[in-house]
Amino acid sequence: MELRKSKITFLGTGTSQGIPVIGSTHPVCLSSNPKDKRLRTSALVEYCGLDLLLDCGPDFRMQMLRENKSNVDAVLLTHEHNDHVGGLDDLRPINFIKGEDIPIYALPRVLNEIRTRYSYAFATIKYPGAPGFDTIEIDGAFKIKDNIIYPIQILHGELPILGYKIGELTYITDASHVSINVIESVSKTGILVINALRQEPHHSHFSLEQALEVVEKINPGIAFLTHISYNLGFHDEVQKDLPPNVFLAYDGLVVDF
User: Fold this and answer.
1) What is the mean pLDDT of residues 208-230?
2) Which domain holds residue 123?
3) Number of structural domains found in the chain
4) pLDDT reading at 214 higher than 70
5) Other CB atoms within 10 A of residue 198 CB
6) What's residue 3's pLDDT?
7) CA dist 48 to 51, 73, 78, 99, 255, Å?
8) What is the CA 72 to chain-centroid distance, rounded?
9) Burial (0-12, 13-18, 19+ Cβ within 10 Å), 164
10) Number of neighbouring beta carbons within 10 Å of residue 149
11) Within a domain: residue 200?
């Protein structure tokens, strides 16, 4: 059977509060351009017949309905902050469709947090309708149905978190530091996705300038910026000043790889 072409769908490209932010009168929050409206950062990667969800934030339900998607074969978590795990309960309909628990891959620390936060999903006697998760600790490269996924060790401030390399796609979000070893390991990747929070420096996220420096070092075929706040500026204005192979991602963008 011929496999589907690999692609990434950007379910959300915004920072922890999304854009617009409740109560904000910042011009970007008031923009009428759909590309300036951003849900919390997440992506669905279709790879070798698998539907891999990269993070599952509070907007997951709306994102899947918007994109007319109904399947997740596995969830790959970068870290435990709520804008990246707050939508896990909304995997329930997919549990019901598939009739099985959904594998969640993450660092041991992150899985411990998931087991605590969603304790009802792991109860010995669960109430009808509770979600079902199969938690799998990441300790190096791992396989999902014979497809190798490579975790990428990065820092989010002082918090160790993960990015992922899936075929020719390298996905990094919430990073504030990427080591030279990691840069070398993903050098010249086909597609790089990397966070760029705002113009000004931030203690736990790359600024635009810092993100572009990492892009230059990795030298991908093409790069997309994500996890964006309104302080980065209007989508169209920022895009005009980016290098030719660097693009601002936006919600609903689909890219083949």
Assistant:
1) 98
2) 7-256
3) 1
4) yes
5) 17
6) 56
7) 9, 12, 21, 22, 15
8) 14
9) buried
10) 20
11) yes
Burial category of 69 from C-beta neighbours within 10 Å (exposed 0-12, middle 13-18, buried 19 and up): middle
Residue 1's pLDDT is: 45
Q: What is the dihedral of CA 64, 164, 204, 9, to 10 degrees?
A: -30
For residue 143, being part of any structural domain is answered with yes
| Residue in the block written with tokens 């996905």 | 171
Residue 84 sits in a domain of what CATH number? 3.60.15.10
- Name the H helices within 99-170: 108-117
Nearest residue to 153 via CA among 216, 212, 97, 109 = 109
Q: Is residue 1, in this structure, part of any structural domain at all? A: no
The amino acid present at 22, given as its one-letter code, is I
The two three-digit tokens of residue 152, written as one number: 């990428």
Using CA atoms, how far residue 211 sits from 6, 107, 126, 198, in Å, is: 25, 24, 44, 10
How is residue 76 written in tokens? 């790959």
As given in the structure block, the two tokens for residue 138 are 């990441």
pTM: 0.97
Those residues with Cβ within 8 angstroms of residue 158's Cβ, 6 or more apart along the chain or in another chain: none
Torsion sign (Cα): 161, 166, 170, 173:
negative
Tens of pLDDT, residues 63-73:
999 999 999 99
Please name the residues in contact with 201: beta carbons below 8 A apart, sequence gap of 6 or more: 207, 210
Looking at the chain, the number of H-run helices and the number of E-run strands are 7, 14
- Is 79 domain-assigned? yes
Structure tokens at 146: 């014979």
